[in-house]
Amino acid sequence: MIRRPPRSTLFPYTTLFRSGIARVVLFIDGLKHNVTTTDRGEFWRLLLPGKYNVYVVADGYDAIFVNDIVIEENRTLVRNFTLRSASTKKPDEETTAIKPLANTNLFIHHSNEMLATVMKKYSDDYPNITRLYSVGNSVEGRPLLVLEISDNPGRHEPGEPEFKYIANMHGNEVVGREMLILLIRLLCESYGHNDTLTSLVNSTRIHIMPTMNPDGYENSHLGDYEGIDGRSNAHGIDLNRNFPYRFGSNKNAPEPETLAVMQWIKEYPFVLSANLHGGSLVANYPFDDNKEGISGKYSESPDDDVFRKISSAYSYAHANMHLGPKCTLGDLFFEQGITNGAAWYLVEGGMQDWNYLNSNCFEITIELGCHKYPFANALESFWMDNREALIAYIQQVHTGVHGFITDNEGHLLSNVTLKVKGIEHDVVSAADGDYWRLLVPGKYSVTAQHLDYMPQTKSVTVPEIGTIQLNFTLTLAESTTPLPSELPTPETIKVAGYANNDQLLSSLRQLEALYPDIVQVAEEKSSSSHSRPFVSVIMTNQTGGPSENKVHVALIGGLYSMQPVGRELLVRLLYRLAEYHQKNNAQICSILDSIVIHVIPSVDIDGFDMKFEGSCDYDSPRVLLSEAGNRVTSDKDSPPPVKNLLKLFDNFHIHVALSLETEGIFFRYPYDRTSMSSVDQHDGDIKTFFYLANSFVSSHEIMKSNNTVCGPSTPTGVIEGKRARPSIGNTLLDYAYDHYGTITFAAQLSCCMFPSASDLDTLWQQNEQPLISFLSASKHGVHGQVVDLQGNPLSVAEVSVVGTRRPVFLTKNSAEFCIVLPPGVYIIRVVYAGYEEQVKKVSISADSSVHLKFVLERRSMPTIGYHDYTSMLDSLKNITSLHPNIAYLHSIGKSVQHRDIWVLCLAADHPGKHLPDRPEVRFVANLRGNDLATRELLIFFAEYLASLYGVDDVVTQILRTTRIHIAPSLNPDGAATAATSDCQLGLSNYNDFDLYTNFPEKMNLKEFEPQKEVQAIVNWIISMPFAFSVAFYSGSKVLSYPFENNGTLKAMDEAVFRHLKASYANYNSTNKEHVVPCAPLNVKQTSDSHLNMQEFTYLHGSSFEVDVNLGCDRCPSSSALGKIWLDNKRSLLYILQQSRTGLYGSVRTISRTPLSSATIQLEGSDVTVNVSADGSYWRLLTWGQYVVHASAEGYFTATKVVSVFEDGATELIFDLKVNDSIYGVPRKTFILITGSATLIILVLSLFIYGCVVRRRNEHYGFYPLNGNASLFEDEDELDLYSSKDYYLNKTLTKTYKDDSSTEEDEEFDRRSHSRLLRSKS
Description:
This protein starts with 9 loop residues before the first strand and ends with a helix. It has an 8-stranded mixed β-sheet with strand order 7-8-10-9-11-14-12-13, sandwiched between helices. By secondary structure, the protein is α/β, with parallel strands linked by helices. It is globular, with a radius of gyration of 42 Å. Helix content is 28%, strand content 22%. It contains 30 helices and 50 strands. Helix 6 packs antiparallel against helix 9 (379-395), helix 11 crosses helix 18 (760-778) and helix 24 (1051-1065) crosses helix 26 (1118-1137).
């Protein structure tokens, strides 16, 4: 068959402001050719089907790296990218661009003395953002100087990541030390002047070590291109081969420089680092070595994606590193300028690997150029090539996930381990309870765990740009007896060497006598008259009690008679578990509450012969093949031990089995036969196999070390049987998995087949904790039951986990089942002939199991009849009477003809009350009175929910987490008319108004008086904080939402509507994607300015409403109502479950008082959510990251960034601070200012008044003279003031007047004055 080539793939490119960006370069990981956008920001890239990683780079914008873009065959993918400007200011502003270093004499080589002087200079010149310190000395006593650059130097700021650059590790590779000196100057001199660099310094604690090998630098020489003079330290040791090896041991002891850096890394919570080298041009990431010790073999770390991302960040920000230029023709070509260390060449004892494996720090090695010690005139070019890259790499420290870990009392917790599901590399929290975990964009499950606390797991979506905060609050674990590895071995099993068969049986019987409540020994008579009885032990809490709802785990020893280690360890384990249980150890009590442990210490008890003690190998393959463990079949000729063992598997459904064996130290899973296909093809089961296997291996010191002591080479300690050794016959692993669906393993515990008795204590110490961990992991998964509506068990139903091949067995009596599964999300499917199939989605956390109850309904048409108003009310009252704890009936108003509009509230506990943690959902029908089918659908839906509460776990969970409002008839008057006219009439209300379009456009009801029914509905919508609603109509077959496809809705809100619409449509058995034409309506139309109900709900009710049309026939025959119910039942249940997605919380004052006047507003949405009287709110959202504002009059607005996940609602609480400002000025400040101003005005007024009064007194007052003293101090002044002119002009022009003056006096003064003037002239 000729395969058609795939169609071309189109990627349109847009920016943050939806305007195209020209000359943006897109690099495809693994492909040499890149593409560039057009002037409009568009691009096209032809790709074959597959999965690709894309790196997007543009000048002036933050680069982004997008993982796992999937190109499907024969499909065109449209993918937009959004770039964020590298600065918040305009491109032409001075603070946006990084200025070049203009002083050309800076581009020189600095000796060690000059380097120390420069570092001290910047420390002295910028004391507010720098600190100079030394981490130790070199061999020759030179200090290893570090300059810290931060807005708070000298201390770790909680929540702020720490970063380091190290250069000149090889003394003759000098470009790095000069680049770091220039970087120091750039960061210091740009602080406060460049927004990007200022923000970087304010948000990051940066440590810069320009030289790690100052002694080697002294021995290097200018112009060295690829030499080795000065490469090593003063002892001749290459420092990048001097760290502890990952495999084996380093023959060279750590040098002083190495020890100093190792201690430095341990003291500071570094998150990201780079080691600057020379001699090539590439970013090199871990691992540098591999187990095989060969170069050219890729050595992938658990965080390979992260290392590729951060390496690419440097490479693509570099002027030409990403192009992969070669230094010589024979050099390797580095795709995108990055390489895995070992894939390039092997380095053992390298610093970057040691960082990753021994701290929280991710480090790469950056080769800055071909020339190791270039001449000074080349340094400026090096700087221009690397300047942006050095900054871009530091910015990578602000990616991934970060947060704080506290206990319930708010105390910060250090040394808490953060585990990311699927990535076998952990980080731990720092001293201040803060942590940082670099991750590529995507969805993750993160677990925080500490020995003294209960673990907590959360889901998080890491954005493509920036980081996201994820905090944990851990609960102190219950007081337990610690796992007492120090407890002595019980006296009852202290025997000299291996216990013989009689001693074994005696020990087990004594165990049962000591602990009868948890131990039961069974001795099954063998089919052979010469054989000993087949002995098994059941250990569980309350032996003899019901165990159908427990996981059954078989621990098997002596399956191979010449491998008796298992029988010895299992007897010790039984005694240890009994001791733990008696001491109320929480872990062991939990295991025995959840698990039935079947211990078969010695399957082939007759074959046990101590004469082979100390033997490490079988004499021949024939002897091995003759063992019972290689003859596990259902054949009648199978050996008696096998028949006895399989009889136990038949009597008890064994979910998990573990056989303890020897001949190697590793953990084996099916298949052993080479003819069988690998389990890896069944992803669901392989996850379970690896989850349980890792629970054992991770606690086993030898297995987890990845060192092949004996047996096959396995990097994880876990291996498929047929890869471990050639086919050895028909093993239990293969048979139990194929015939019973049992997850079966073999733990190979010793290199020797039959180790000497002196090794037993060591073997017990090595395996005690792994065995307990394995049992603890086995209890996780799904427990459930399948019944019919009457509660009768359906034991022949078929239960399966989608994606796994294991059969799930139901117990005969109670139809219960257990499925062992690792943490994750699963789909459980139940099928039974004659009943409706049920499918449930379940999420399993790391610390608990999930209990499900499937209630199957017969696949038969329910009988549904029509109600009139009275019988409808009777049905609603009957629901309330039968289910008073979950049902509450009330009226929201009356119709024109005074009929009540009834609403039935359904919720577990307090159905008549709004609770802050419970969303409100509305189902309404019959707004058009002749849509009678819609009314009957909701009446039956209400009866269905009420009757299944406490019976079906889906319905029960819905009613426990959601308050449902069901209004079957919003137009009871129209419905009454329709019932008497065969639905020909009654669409409108009594006043002949179509209520559907009678809702006010504005909330000012004085301008428009709606119909009484609409008035009641409006008041109901406004008064209740509905998360969403569903309205049912007839007249077509289509789902719709307001303003659909007309561009009115914001993208965020349209996404919610589309999600609700899809949630209903995808589970509906009828096609509602296309409108089915129906007869046009003949109704009285209202003004175009009015709204319909769903538009009003969105614009004024701050909620989302979708309309569901059931078909053209508004009142079909009653026989058709049952089918309408079956068509819509799953949709109704599924859309109800969407109420728990989005955002919820409360708005309070600082003193925790609810703020009922507050509103919630999301950036990108037109919906303003009004909080309830108790301060609570719900906002339906699709999953993603949002910016949320909470505001209230008289309070400062609070803004938070929050992530919403698809598997549950996110809680977000706002505590608002009182805004007591006046005209934007704080109240106290305003009072102080106004008080001061008033005082100043008062003082100024008094001063002016005093000046005026004093001036008047000087001219018109009477003053006493001191004896004969003159009025003037000197003669000159006396002459001046005595002159005739002065007297005429100064004195007589302003005559004195007192209150006693008369008109005659005034007339006399005027005449006198006239005479004087005449005499002067």
